[in-house]
Give the backbone structure.
Amino acid sequence: MLLGLRRLKRAQVVLLVVDIQEKLLPAMHEPTRVLQNAVLLAKAAQVLGLPVWVTEQYRKGLGSTVPELAGAIPGFAPVEKMAFSALGVEGLRRQFRDRDIQQAIVCGIEAHVCVTQTCLDMLEIGLQPFVVADAVSSRNPEDCRLGLDRMRHAGGVIVSAEMALFELLDRAGTPEFKQILQLVK
C-alpha cells in the first residue's frame, strides 16, 4: 500500500518503458529527447541492476520498439498489449506482485494516454510511479502537459531522468556513480 511519497529504492523499483515504437515515436513532440532519455535510463538500469520491462502497443500496426532502445536493454523481451495501460497485461501486473516491486520509473509514449492510464492503474493497486518528464511525450505538447498534470494530481511523482538516477545512486564516489556520470555527460 502506498504510504505517502517515498524516495526511489533500488530493491523495489523497475524501469517500465511504455510503447516507444518505430511508427509511433516519429509522430511525438521532441522524439529525440524522449529516445535519448529512455536509452539513458535503460543503460543506467543495467549499471544499477534494475529490471527493465518494455511494452509495445499493437505491434502489427505501430511496429516494434525502436532499435536504439531495444539494443540498450540486455535480454530485451517486450510484452505486446492492446489495453492502453501496461497493467492491462496480466503478466506485468503479476510480475509486480510476485517480485514485490513497489515502485516503477515510467517513461514512454503517449504521455496522456498509455503512460497516464498505466500510472493511474499503478496508483489504484498501491504502486508508486515515478514518471520521467523528459522521457515521455505526446504528439501534441499540450496533451503531454495535461497528462503530466493529471498523473501528478493523482499521486504520481514527476521527475527528470537525472533526478531518478542520482536518487537511486544515493552517493557519489562509487563505481556505479562514475558509470552513471559517464552516461549523463
